[in-house]
Design goal:
145 residues, alpha/beta, Rossmann fold, 4-stranded parallel beta sheet, 4 strands, globular
Length: 145
């Protein structure tokens, strides 16, 4: 089964996966991949442009391979704000879309405490895009966690 975990920055997407995935499952988390590829002492959420390019390519390769194994293992993918094209692909793969959203006030407080200031803009874009969607436009059942 493919689980696509969406939500704004600092919502708790990685925490949701840690609470649900088993050791034998595949987890594709861009931040964890970047941390694994960065040098010692790297910031968990601040990545150079070059590292970001490398990690994005590695993520695409990991996704392509993981999709081949959905019949034998669960795959968890963090995708903050999937495009319509990505959502269509997830639908074809019969993914379960999970939206983690503790609420705008909590997210913004977490960002101020733990993330770079630019993440507030990313979170605002996420909330603004959600406001423009109707509940029926969501590809699969979403839920708050």
């Amino acid at each position: 089964m493919l689980f696509v975990v969406t939500g704004p920055p600092a919502a708790g997407k990685s925490s949701w996966i840690r609470a649900h995935a088993k050791p034998e499952d595949i987890v594709i988390d861009l931040d964890l991949m970047a941390l694994a590829m960065a040098g010692p002492g790297a910031d968990h959420h601040a990545h150079s442009e070059v590292l970001t390019k490398v990690v994005h390519r590695a993520r695409f390769a990991a996704l392509d391979e993981a999709y081949q194994h959905l019949d034998t293992t669960d795959v968890y993918v963090i995708h903050t704000q999937p495009s319509a094209k990505a959502l269509a692909k997830y639908k074809r793969l019969k993914a379960r879309i999970v939206t983690v959203d503790p609420g705008r006030d909590i997210v913004m407080a977490r960002i101020r405490a733990m993330r770079q200031p630019g993440m507030e803009r990313v979170a605002s874009r996420w909330y603004n895009a959600r406001r423009g969607q109707s509940r029926t436009a969501m590809p699969q059942a979403s839920r708050r966690w």
